[in-house]
Fold:
Amino acid sequence: MIGERRKTVVIVGGGITGLAAARRLRYHSPDIAVFLIESDDRLGGKISTVREDGFVIEGGPDSFLSYKPRGLGLCRELGLENRLHGTNRKVSRTYIMRGGRLYQLPEGLTGLIPSRFEPMLKTPLISPWGKARMGLEFLVPPRKEVDDESLEAFVSRRLGHEAYDRMIEPLMSGVYAGDGSQLSLDATFPNLRKAELEHGSLIKSMLATRAHPVRQSATQNVKKWPAFLTLETGLTEIVEHVVSDLHDVQITLKTRVKAVTANDGIDMPRYRVTGENGEEFMADAIILATPAFITEQLVNQIDPEAAKALTEIPYVSTATVSVAYPLSQVPGSLDSYGYIVPRSEGRAVLACTWTSTKFPHRAPQQYALLRAFLGRAGNEAVLELSDDELIALVRDELRAVLGITAVPHLQTIFRWPKAMPQYTLGHLQRLKTIEHQFRKHEGLFYAGAAYQGIGIPDCIASGEAAAEKTYAYCETLKASEALHL
Ligand SMILES: Cc1cc2nc3c(=O)[nH]c(=O)nc-3n(C[C@H](O)[C@H](O)[C@H](O)COP(=O)(O)OP(=O)(O)OC[C@H]3O[C@@H](n4cnc5c(N)ncnc54)[C@H](O)[C@@H]3O)c2cc1C
Structure:
């Protein structure tokens, strides 16, 4: 149409959220000019893979959940399905530490709800009293109060504190690196509260699910993937393929956005995005795909109330240390995906993935690749250790637990300051405030791990949802401009 101005969208942040938003926007409308601005010298954010000497080492995320639709969905759209690897089906066990020793995690802890009696009865991880307390769960009445409850309070109330401390807390920590006494049940595992309300108890809910299992349609020719998936040469493949799919998106690296301001008056474009070196981008719409504490700084001038709610989303710092050894230097067999460590064990290592067992393609055959995960809510000082100190700490851990005394053949450290958003008590109320405030500013959108899911599929879905809203907004702009032509 003569006189119609091309709409411009600026996406701030080139992690998987921002990339997914850019891709969705590009597919919707080649007419929109899309700019993606990233402060780092690379794209991908927390997704960071090192490929070295036949090893595939993940610094951040290690795999994604297959049952959440947009991880697998995006891989399919990118033509990556035949490059996916599920967890090793031959060895599908995980250990939990107790008193410095490793015990097998009872099978059937789907979604944190015990789904089978037998493994619970047999596990030496829980004392007879703890088991009896778990068994009484079906007698515990549902909580009447509707206010937010912490994950720890809920699980201790229903299954007893021992079950929380020895099984559920370490499982939850593996996702959020958080403190269960602060995490909101409604925001992290809403299915648990739903089961309590619908069935009166978790055990009754388990029995009901068994009696009426969800049937998969016979016509639904769905390949049954293991719960966790990764790619042949690491999760960075997703980033690389999304980027090569971003035709005509103008990507600017090494540019830290320091401010977003709304233009006065009715002249379009509405927003001005300023980089720390004075770069300027004018935008009809913006997607802020940055961590909440950055988004807060960027919207502070436009909406202090939204900024205040964003500051209330805390973050935890973590680090990962990957080490490889020739198998000949590893006593015993690495017969599991690794182990997780309850907070009550008081150790610096939160979990240790036996990567070359979990995903055998990620190390040459004659090597073991292991990854220690360090730092959790309340124990983040570990990030301040020097590289040598971190390696020494991990080597001490592996000596004590696995008897490995050799010097690693290879070692890689990633520090992740303020990396894991915490959905603490009141999170859902905070989200309502943020959403309510952003709605007041047409064309201003946000997405990312801080809001409704921290996993990669959640971030992809969040970026894509923000792109949908942005596209719809650009369409309304076009329609109203057409009226005035
Ligand atoms: C150690 C670790 C292990 C994890 N393991 C898993 C796992 O196994 N499976 C899973 O599904 N998830 C896992 N996660 C979570 C998942 O990786 C993240 O939630 C997800 O990658 C976040 O994506 P994002 O794009 O929202 O944010 P980010 O990846 O943080 O991207 C935000 C981007 O914004 C950029 N940025 C920041 N400020 C500015 C600015 N002012 N201007 C311009 N750009 C800016 C940053 O440089 C970054 O690139 C893990 C996370 C960590 C840290």
